[in-house]
Hints:
By secondary structure, the protein is α/β, with parallel strands linked by helices. The chain contains eleven helices and twelve strands. Strands 1, 2, 3, 4, 5, 6, 7, 8, 9, 10, 11 and 12 form a twelve-stranded mixed β-sheet that branches. Helix 4 links the parallel strand 4 and strand 5. Helix 1 packs across helix 3. It is globular. About 2% of the residues have low confidence.
Amino acid sequence: MPLNLPKNLPAVELLKEEHIFVMDSLRAAEQDIRPLRVVVLNLMPLKITTETDLVRLLSNSSLQVELDLMKIKGHSPKNTPIEHMQTFYRDFDEIRDQYYDGMIVTGAPVEQLPFEDVTYWEELKEIFDWGRKHVTSTLYICWAAQAGLYHFYDVPKYDLPDKMFGIFKHTMNDPFQPIFRGFDDEFYVPHSRHTEIRREDILKVPQLTLLSESDESGVYMAMARGGREFFITGHSEYAPDTLHNEYVRDVNKGLPIAVPANYYKDDDPAKSPVVRWRGHANLLFMNWLNYYVYQQTPYRIEDIQLLGDLI
């Protein structure tokens, strides 16, 4: 079944062009099905682009999903109209008493700052802690994965000498985990980051399971609390042109940036990107929704609190 999204969200019209069906709230109400409630804390600068990327993947499921968008209180994004934020986003204070089946926390352009120097760090920690009592399973993506690992498990991040930028091959350490259902032995993931977490730090923490990594880009996925938390360092949700847009942006700014690895045909920026991560990305989000959200969430969403108290 498709997603039930806020009326007039720009992602709806953009995805209709890709023949992705989105259910309106009236039609959803006619179905005798409790939709999965998923909240997205969108920390990325291009909010509408990130919304569209995530909706594209969440919609490719037989499950009905109702999406809420959350923002950091008092933080005004520079690249998204204020009217869009006021219409479609809610502050944490507005939803702190609610319960969700799933939560996604995106990356943020603050990765080279110490966590404690991020202006919204205290609020973010509160949201992370809230998620453990109010959410069945959470995906932490890119910088959010680093932030979550640091907050919950004291896993540090490290500056890279050069930006990790491109499409990299990954393998699974435990291919029988449900999150990998249907994956090939090797799969590709976009990365775009200046910092990393290291496998030796993950392996020091008994509560963490290192699920996937890459010879080139390092740690990709770690899991905690039986799948109630996933920490993912790459950007499986990226659209085909996202790395191209980042590359052109930095070139135009005169910043030192290498051509994204394994991305353009023949590694030539004048040629089109070769999309080789789309199948894996769809499986990742479908498996998360099915095996860690839908099959684990209580029949009554309010009972997630009890689940949080037990685990």
